[in-house]
Design a protein that fits this description.
The protein is an alpha+beta fold. It folds into three domains: 210 residues, Aldehyde oxidase/xanthine dehydrogenase, molybdopterin binding domain (Aldehyde Oxidoreductase, domain 4), CATH 3.30.365; 168 residues, 2-Layer Sandwich (Aldehyde Oxidoreductase, domain 4), CATH 3.30.365; 335 residues, Aldehyde Oxidoreductase, domain 4 (2-Layer Sandwich), CATH 3.30.365.10. The protein has 19 helices and 27 strands. The strands form seven sheets. Strands 10-11-8-18-15-16-17 form a seven-stranded mixed sheet. Strands 13-21-20-19-14 form a five-stranded mixed sheet, sandwiched between helices. Strand 6 and strand 7 form a beta hairpin. Helix 5 packs across helix 6. The longest helix is centred in the N-terminal third of the chain and has 23 residues. 53% of the residues are buried.
Length: 764
């Protein structure tokens, strides 16, 4: 087995992956490796959640790198003589369950024995050396399954076809007379049987079929079933290795401090006293803005770093504050220039003619990903020697192995074929470990100063908090025009605020437009479309980019856009004395899938029947719905607010239509987890700036939901078939607006600025 992550008892990535190294070197010698420049550019684009298309050449025996004892049938499937099956998973596992779900998709078409399945990660270096046979490694935007389901299923189907063909060749019978089930091949007329393990070596020598027919979903036996996750045992026993756990021979540890002001630089430092401390090996300048201490243990490195005398050049952003950023965004709400994301009719004319206008301004703050495992990477830089070229290896939790490889090559100053990244399970990702790999670059820079020695860089929690890639800050001004009967005739949504794409992938901005800004507000279509028909609609964006680095934060812009729209529609309903559900229904005639999930929620909660009191407190409800990441979702929150203003969220019922449901139990877990994340953001999540610095440095000032405040979550799964949607992110977006609408119903107070912890809910 190659030395990359494996579940169910496989070896762990504690050493070099020699097959990947040999493959990369072979690729370099034959001249087929990409140039460093072209690879870096391509991988940077692939790191984003917008890249959707590529060709997957399934490789048969000619390029197989599996050993004779464990033949590789194709890039996705390795079958051992004992009938155990290794399924290779290119996407990252960070708690969302993609590893198990993708394995189910392959196993379904492979017709193997699920009890004998394990998984492993191929490396990005192997992918490069093999002409990107595994395609896109990016795991973000809830795309892990929905954008790779077809080709991984084909991988399983092709492997099954080759195994059956090998058996039929051995028996001298037509392959059409043979069938496969649970890793056993049976010749129907004679009753003869054999197993996958017995014919795997012969199958690996066959040419893959030109095409295969995939199963009809009605015939699925593995997909659609609540199978247990493949990585649970290792997590329960503590055997699962995360980046911070990794140990290598001769390992040293590094702690780092970057300038606390965005855009600032390192001016000077005095390391004379620090270098005399026990265990300290070296103090290293990293780039032009950071300094690191390398020691035999991380705690010695961290305490030495704390004692280091550092002088910062704080640069032009030393006076930046939250108040100043808010003023910048507010100016964009009425700016004459804005980029249109969605438009129909004539909003200006309709608003001018409206019998009544309703207007509100909402805002959404910076938020940190706050992963439980901070950013970390272990790097080893081996100089050229004995005719062998220089090499750089990195072990790291990453949402995109190819982007991590690109960052490694760039920081090492080497061709990608002379680098490798060994991907580890993530202790949380949420988008932080996807598009930007700043910690990998830092680890490589430090390792280059300690040649031949593996160095593990771990960010402290404080470093992680003040050097995040934050959920972008925005404000939104909404204006509704109503006719004499109170019907909504016009809606203008002006978003003012930050563009993630402009900061991370500026080459993808076309005509000034960041399409990600409009998630959930687009015209009807497969990606994050609006679920209402308004005769005159205008959604536009005044881009305002403060010098705080934004990033793709779980749910991205669908989060605040759903708050803006769903809470404002609630305002319109109450202003016109309509039931919030009735108003939504009146606008959803042309959006049956949006309406279906909403109807499922109101049916479950019995919307027309008032909820029972709890502990002497009246309970109130709020609704929200949206479409994003390919799925349709809706939620109803039930809350109570005491006379003293104490909020209790009792229950959230959430409906999801992801098209196809690969693992229902896993989807339920994702929905529940998404509400933990979404409610944490709504109740507490805010990063503020003063003197150019993020003020929230740890969980004491950036709290998250605790078990005693978490509501009961009920998941209604409505897989309507015909499409593949994501499940990790969509329901986050309906958590906050459902709760905010319920709070209004309970208190009459309309909260338009998050987090909720900033507001008093005490009744007047």
């Amino acid at each position: 087995m190659s030395a990359h992550g494996r579940t169910r008892g496989g070896s762990l990535p504690h050493g070099p992956a020699h097959d990947a190294e040999d493959g990369a070197r072979h690729s370099a010698r034959r001249g087929t490796a990409l140039s460093r420049r072209s690879f870096l550019g391509g991988s940077a684009a692939a790191a984003g959640s917008l890249v959707v298309g590529f060709h997957i050449p399934f490789i048969g025996s000619a390029a197989a790198q599996g050993s004779a004892a464990a033949p590789e049938i194709n890039a996705w499937v390795v079958v051992h003589p004992d009938d155990s099956v290794v399924i290779r998973i290119a996407r990252s596992e960070m708690g969302q369950g993609s590893l198990t779900g993708l394995a189910q998709l392959v196993a379904e078409e492979l017709e193997c024995d699920w009890a004998r399945v394990s998984t492993e990660y191929p490396t990005p270096g192997q992918n490069l050396a093999r002409s990107r046979v595994w395609g896109n490694f990016s795991t973000g935007g809830s795309r892990g399954i929905r954008e790779s389901h077809e080709y991984v299923r084909k991988g399983g189907a092709m492997a099954r076809t080759m195994l059956v063909q090998a058996a039929s060749d051995e028996w001298g019978v037509p392959a059409g007379e043979c069938r496969a089930a649970a890793s056993v091949i049976t010749h129907a007329p004679s009753g003869r049987t054999t197993t996958y393990g017995k014919v795997s070596a012969a199958a690996a020598k066959l040419a893959p079929p030109a095409d295969v027919t995939l199963k009809d979903p009605k015939d699925w036996r593995i997909v659609g079933k609540p199978f247990k996750r493949l990585d649970t045992v290792e997590k329960l026993t503590g055997a699962q290795v995360y980046g911070t756990d990794l140990k290598l021979p001769g390992l040293l540890n590094a702690a780092i401090s970057d300038c606390p002001v965005f855009g600032g630089k390192l001016k000077s430092y005095d390391d004379s006293a620090v270098l005399r401390r026990p265990g300290v090996k070296k103090v290293v300048k990293v780039g032009d803005s950071a300094v690191a201490v390398v020691a035999d243990t991380w705690w010695r490195a961290k305490t030495a770093l704390d004692a280091l005398d550092i002088v910062w050049d704080e640069g032009p952003n030393a006076t930046l504050s939250s108040a100043g950023i808010a003023e910048m965004l507010a100016a964009g709400l009425d700016a004459p220039e804005a980029i249109v994301g969605n438009r129909n009719g004539d909003v200006k004319q309709a608003l001018d003619k409206s019998a009544k206008r309703i207007e509100a301004v909402y805002s959404y703050p910076y938020q940190n990903h706050a992963t439980m495992e901070t950013m970390n990477a272990t790097a080893k830089f081996t100089p050229a020697a004995g005719g062998e070229p220089a090499r750089c290896e990195v072990w790291t939790p990453t949402q995109n192995g190819e982007a991590a490889l690109a960052a490694t090559a760039e920081a090492a100053g080497l061709p990608p074929a002379q680098c490798e990244v060994y991907k580890l399970h993530l202790g949380g990702g949420f988008g932080r470990r996807g598009a930007v790999h700043d910690w990998v670059r830092q680890a490589v820079a430090i390792a280059k100063e300690m040649p031949g020695t593996p160095v593990k860089l771990i960010w402290s929690r404080e470093e992680d908090m003040i050097h995040g890639r934050y959920h972008p800050i925005t404000q939104c001004k909404l204006t509704a025009g109503l006719d004499d009967e109170g019907k909504l005739q016009a809606l203008h949504m002006r978003i003012s605020g930050q563009s993630i794409v402009a900061a991370v992938f500026p080459q993808m901005i076309k005509d000034g437009k960041d399409p990600v800004v409009f998630q959930g507000l687009n015209p009807p279509g497969p990606e994050a479309s609006i679920g209402y028909s308004v005769p005159n609609l205008l959604v536009d964006h005044a881009m305002r980019n403060p010098p705080v680095p934004p990033g793709f934060w779980r749910g991205v812009n669908l989060n605040q856009n759903t708050i803006y729209l769903e809470c404002f529609l609630d305002e319109v309903a109450h202003a016109t004395k309509q039931d919030p559900l009735a108003l939504r229904r009146s606008l959803m005639a042309e959006h049956p899938k949006h309406r279906a999930v909403l109807e499922a929620v109101v049916e479950r909660v019995k919307w027309d029947t008032p909820p029972a009191d709890i502990d002497g407190q009246r309970v109130f409800r709020g609704l929200a719905q949206t479409m994003g990441f390919g799925s349709y979702v809706a939620a109803c929150a039930e809350v109570s607010v005491s006379d003293e203003g104490d909020l209790k969220i009792h229950r959230i019922v959430a409906a999801t239509d992801p098209g196809h449901a690969v693992n229902p139990q896993q989807i339920e877990a994702q929905v529940e987890g998404s509400f933990v994340y979404g409610l944490s953001a709504a109740l507490y999540g805010e990063c503020t700036l003063e003197n150019g610095r993020i003020q929230q440095r740890n969980f004491d000032t950036y709290p998250v939901m605790r078990m005693d405040t978490m509501p009961k979550v009920e998941t209604v799964l409505l897989p309507s078939g015909g499409f593949w949607g994501g499940v990790g992110e969509p329901t986050i977006a309906v958590a906050a607006p459902a709760v905010l609408n319920a709070i209004f119903a309970a208190t009459g107070k309309r909260i338009r600025e998050l987090p909720l912890s900033k507001h008093s809910l005490k009744k007047a």
